Queue: 2 jobs
Job 1
Amino acid sequence: MQRNLLCAATIACVMLSAISCKKDDTATLPTASLSATSQTISESAGTASITVTLPSTQSTDVTIKATLGGTAILNGDYQLSTDTTLIIAAGSTSATLTFEIFDDEVVESDKTINVSFSSTNASLTNSTATITITDNDTDQSSSGLVSELTWDAGTLVDMDLYLANNVTISDDAVTDYTLLSGSTNNTGFESLLLSNDLDDADYYVLVYFAEGAREVTYTLTNRADGNTVYEDTYNFTADEEGGAYFYGPFTKSGTAYTIGKAANSVLWDVKLVEPHWHKGKIAK
Ligand SMILES: [Ca+2]
Ligand SMILES: [Ca+2]
Ligand SMILES: [Ca+2]
């Protein structure tokens, strides 16, 4: 009986102690706040940032994790300049999450970066923030056929667009071509104009996989007179780096464009990868 009473008293003490400790832990969590929960910037802004601030310094590091979402494409529309795990070091009161915003030539809708913050050793006055990126590009489709190249989120890749004519295809391989122009952003999406001013002829758009180390799902959108006329995706593997895909022909007649050799023909007639690429006239 005495033993049972002792056990019951011990259990009660442990429970009280646990409750007491829990209360103390909660009470000591510092409260962090965000510098901006909603901001709107232009695509040309260069950078954007969100700072997490504590009201006073702490004796230990405070860790805040940021999780990204939204319609903006990581490493397409923007890239991270800092890690998504923010550490407010002991003795400091703030840490900043910074983004580089890519200023491409693609006409697109406004996009958002949604950031959710969480922490196991701080409480947050606001746990979400949104950065809205407004587009700054002008539709050129009245001047010709516009091809735009975008891709999925993932590690950074560099893909470029080129325009070629005098393309010679033999046994499903490109043996010669003349390069006319190119759009070569190192970061961000690409846009190319097949101008109404060019001679009537057959043209090809080249998607060149310049640099990257992952499979890429890309979308090539061609627009004439503001309408989408072709759109598709393809998985571009890392071992195809340095290769190009020829899409076409785009047969130009005045301001009208016919895509593919005939109705229902496949848009990409030729898939060109190294070493064939170096038979061409591009010096990268
Ligand atoms: Ca732009
Ligand atoms: Ca744009
Ligand atoms: Ca590029």
Note: Residues 158-160, 184-186, 190, 210 surround calcium ion (ligand 3) (CB under 6 Å).
Job 2
Amino acid sequence: MTSSGVQAKSDAPASILLRSATVFDGQQLHTGWAVLVTGDKIAAAGPLAEISVPADTRTIDLPNDTIIPGMIEGHSHLFLHPYNETSWNDQVTNESLAFRTARATEHARRTLLAGFTTERDLGTEGAGYADVGLKQAIDQGIVPGPRLIVVTRAIVAKGSYGPKLSSDLDVPQGAQEASGVEEVVRVAREQIGKGADWVKLYVDYRWGAGEPSRPTFSLEEIAAAVKAAHDAGRLVAAHATTAEGMRRSILAGVDTIEHGDEGTPEVFQLMKKHGVAFCPTVAVSDAISQYRGWKRGIDPEPERIQKKRASIKAARAAGVTFAMGGDVGVFAHGDNAREMELLVHEYGFTPLEVLRQATSGNAAIFHLADRGKVQIGEVADLVALRGDPTTDVGALRRVTFVMKGGTIFRQP
Ligand SMILES: [Zn+2]
């Protein structure tokens, strides 16, 4: 900033006019639109001729680009890095909190520069409450990153999670353990008190290596956690891959279900009826299958991919609302577009559908009224992509410009 007194300028925040080929407003594509940003908010969006541009406005021309609302990653783990680099067990057991936090800081930067200005991070996986501190550092502008929605440690049923080493050893777990209604409520409240924006429950998991997933928490335990979270104004995400885990979560009133691999048509109909959103995380299934040696397009599809196809088909038939989130962290941060690419190339969604999911869709599901759309009064979280992402999902990789809250983080 310049020193005071040099210019007798008003204290009015500076304005930036963004002129692009097209604007995707979160729902539709518009030609001939421009976006005026004043301070940290969108001051106007519409046909250029209809926008009154204040004097001293800086203009940025993006003539070959589409401006979209900053994208919202729906499922990430900033404190994890790809499992083909280091296994989950080794990350949780052997990597220090300082090392993991340093990594997470870089992951956050890459995510922002990839066009994701908000991220729901669904568990530090053994890194305690470090997500709360990282969020604070981002919010204060100390390090670059998306606006974070954090769940802190996440909650697992006692004995159900990992790492599992010798039965003689009680090793620190990848999430906070709880058992029984009273304890689940206590742990949910403890996490909320320490900064959790959402509560994340693992309602099913494999109890031992090589076993299939089975329900962990009872319906009563899940319902008690949901009530405690909702009373505190927090939403709830359930990790659920089994039909029974999903059914209990829906009846208990969770807000989103993550993964849902074994969801049946009946379960998805119940989900639709109760207004629970589905975050299918197809990218993590793709990544893990490839880490195990599967070659997509060459080898026959592994069972977990076949299940994913069936569950997505059933969810679409039931009219369930989809959240967009890839379980980033299992694969590289900054590679967030992978989920959307797979949804288009492998699961039959249109580029427009996935772009809506990643913007206005996730904003609605996550109750973020101030973002996900390009309209007056929204926070100025804006991204420019070379080409037209509503017809070409490949455009998601061609990020030319990133603004968060009126601050430019990337520019041509
Ligand atoms: Zn996850």
Note: The first helix runs from residue 88 to 94.
